[in-house]
Amino acid sequence: QMCIRDSTSPVLDEFAAKGVVFEDASATTGWTLPSHASMLTGLFPLRHGVITGANALSEEVPTLAGWFNGAGWDTAAIVNVLWLKRERYGLTRDFEKYLFIAEADYRRRGPSSWATDQAMEWLRDQQGRSLFLFLHYYDVHADYASLPEYERLFVSPYEGEADGTGWQLARASLDEDYLEMCRKNYDPDKCRIGTPEEHLVIDESTEVISYDADDLQHIEELYDAGIRQLDNELGRFFSLLAGEKLLDEALIVITSDHGEEFMDHGRMDHFLTMYQEVLRGPLILRGPGVPKGLRIEAPVSLVDLAPTLLS
């Protein structure tokens, strides 16, 4: 029995109903590194300077964690993607406690339970001290792969080639001129997708993928399963917070660094375009002093996340 699409996030829906929902929140750009840099500095990409995978955040640019440290708060970050690794890009350099989940990769299926577990361990250790915690989940991201119990809820019988992997999604989105350039004059600095440490090569052997309507439906269903998997993990996190009497004391912000496109404008995934489906994401605030049940239609930008939290 299939679930309807609007039942992908019941936990998050219930959580949001007791807080403020911004219905038109946009990231500053369409991929992880510069978008997170904006969220963690309050600056647009051309100001913070982290434009490509070759750029790291300048030591001269202050960060949200640094401001919280200066105000006497403890700070902690749990991240699981190379773009947020402090040694390489510096976005998370000012967090006092820091955990990079090194064994995480793009092919994982299970929920990010280890991130929740570590977060709760740190929260229990606070003993009344103020903590700014940055908890980064990766369940709703290519590869679109979730545990079977979540995929059974959403994924219809399917016998095609679409598999929801990031590599396949990328090959369904390559610009023809770019592909021709890399096939004729391969440049190792330009003809790749991913970080310098982990990347996929675009060259004369790269096969382009084309999706039909059935393929696209299958991929969207895989994506929905990932949303439900994350939703259940958030439910576990909220329950743990409630058990520690922290759920109503904490200001909780839930957002995303980018959206996804599903052939809305002829491409898949994210990164290559700046359409609204790539930029828009959730922005939910809940906690002391935050109105309950308020939905705001006015457009907002995640560049203002840092000053909002500081205020």
Structure characteristics:
single chain, 311 residues, alpha/beta, 4-stranded mixed sheet, 3-stranded mixed sheet, 12 helices, 14% strand
Quick description:
This protein is an alpha/beta fold and 311 residues long.
Structure description:
The chain is 34% helix and 14% strand. It is α/β, with parallel strands linked by helices. The strands form 5 sheets. It has a 4-stranded mixed sheet, with no helix packed on it. A 3-stranded mixed sheet has the order 11-2-14. Helix 7 packs across helix 10. The longest helix is centred in the last third of the chain and has 31 residues.
Strand content: 5-15%
> How would you spell out the order of helices and strands?
HEEHHHEHEHEHHHEEHEEEHEEEEH
* Tally of helical runs: 12
Question: What average pLDDT do the residues reach?
Answer: 92
Strand order of the largest sheet: 8-12-1-13
How far apart are the termini?
A: 47 Å
Unreliable runs: none
Biggest sheet features: 4 strands, mixed
Secondary structure class reads: alpha/beta
Shape: globular
Computed Rg: 20 Å
Helix content: 25-40%
Question: What's the structural blueprint in terms of helices and strands?
Answer:
Blueprint: H1 10-16, E1 20-22, E2 25-26, H2 32-41, H3 45-48, H4 64-70, E3 74-79, H5 86-89, E4 97-100, H6 113-124, E5 131-135, H7 148-154, H8 166-171, H9 176-184, E6 192-194, E7 199-201, H10 213-243, E8 252-255, E9 261-262, E10 268-269, H11 276-279, E11 280-281, E12 283-286, E13 294-296, E14 300-301, H12 305-310
Parallel strand pairs: 1-13, 2-14, 3-4, 3-5
Antiparallel strand pairs: 1-12, 2-11, 6-7, 8-12, 9-10
Helix pairs in contact: 6-10, 7-10
